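If you are new to this repository, start here. Below is one unmodified record pulled from the training split, so you can see the exact layout before writing a loader.
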Amino acid sequence: MSKPPLDPDVADVAPNEPALTAYDEQHVVTYIRLLQAEGQGADWREVARIVLHVDPEREPERARTAYESHLARAKWVTEQGRLLRGAGSK
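And here is the target side for that same chain:
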């Protein structure tokens, strides 16, 4: 895996595939930031604005959907996808 971008644009909805995708590899940093924010109890609206670049005041449904789907994908990637556990882990 090549070095992922630090702050890539995100899709309105994260992938929901049963395998890791190129999108997942490009958004590793996004996933880490989402997980850290959740662990720190950050407000989802602030996270959507800063991490996902979606304004929850102007587009509340889009922001909430993007936040929820990307957070769910971040959890899947770390728990089942193993993207963040190291390439040697299977």
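Two things worth knowing about this chain: The chain has a mean pLDDT of 89. The two ends are 16 Å apart (CA to CA).
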